[in-house]
Design goal:
This protein is of the alpha/beta class. About 45% of the residues lie in helices and about 15% in strands. The chain has a five-stranded parallel beta sheet, with helices on both faces. The chain has a five-stranded parallel beta sheet with strand order 9-12-15-8-16. It has a two-stranded antiparallel ribbon with strand order 6-7. The radius of gyration is 25 Å and the shape is globular.
Amino acid sequence: MSSSRILVVEDRESLRRMLDRALSGEGHVVETAASGEEALGLLAERQYDLVLTDLKLPGQSGIDVLRESRKLNPGLPVVVLTAYGTVHTAVEAMKEGAVDFLEKPVEIDDLFRLVEGVVGETPAEDSFSVAGGPTIVGGHPTVRTALRLLERVARTESTVLLTGESGTGKELFARALHALSPRSDGPFVAVNCAAIPETLMENELFGHEKGAFTGAHRRQPGRFEVAKGGTLLMDEIGELPLAVQAKVLRVLEERTFERVGGSQTHRADVRLVAATNRNLAAMAEAGGFREDLFYRLEVFPIELPALRDRASDIPLLAQYLLERIAERQKSGRRQLTDGALELLASHPWPGNVRQLANVLERAMIVGDGPRLGAAELRPLISALGGGSDRQHICEALTQAEGDKRQAAGILGISYRTLQRRIKDYDLGGFPEYRK
């Protein structure tokens, strides 16, 4: 383990001394503070390689220490200590800029691994992959924070809630989580709640018995059974009908369910990952989503950043996507020019990575030669528009000649999401919205 200067902020004397002894024994130079105020004074006077701070401190809190650390030295890594069972608070601290968290009671081996990972000489990676899982491209701090959270929760059985706009890669993260988990040998099953009619949702999730309804000629398992021993991703869970929400809540609370038309109780041996582009807390407050289910889902939330909030990743991501598109189309590899990369990085991408991939695929089809420049991309990006969300939808609908499914593809959002936004913006049907 390499030697570093570490500030330990902990009000409990016994734990403060233990952390001091453990880290000093590994060759680190350790200074300690018993309060937030004392820590802030030390931070103003000296340089550190790492700050290890409790979140709950007398007076100035650990969050105050975190914020001041980032203000004085934006590159200074801060790890927060949190009591067992308050992981949600630690996640919020990571959104404020903490690089990681450590639960109490502190295990020394975990402490050493975490410190070595944070202050070691390993450079930041610009992509993440795991055997059996997808590659996630991005070196932006918001992406690295989401990946660190993913790695921490993957080895547990906790329910995970992935939030973020459409096209930010929630299914990629869910697949990576599954690949990192003890359930990786089991199946990964994804269900898009926005793509299934309400009348079929219960049957899709829980299956049915023979004779349960007209046309039910044989028993059919639902997604919870198909995913046995593995992971079930419920994408766009905000679209789940209230009646079915109650049944999903029961699965989370009791780990049991019945098939439609059946009385036998079955055990649900799955790890549930939920994903949404909607504000479930606001929906719960308005009565559109069960509050008790929301709290069950939000055990460990991970927010995925919009592409416009990590524009520095766009050049790397665009080239990666272009290579994957070339492999899929069995065509020659293309290279993006500097001008093309600059143009891509300057666009807000309301449909996020999915929309970027759609534009690149169209550019591959219409472009000639081994290099794609700004000239080939500019008309495709201009067709997306650069104004408000309403304008983007109008332009996509016009481009798709009223075909809403095609327009949803252009925007990089789901058909159900597009329908909702058309209603919200009072766009009506083709061709009225052209006005």
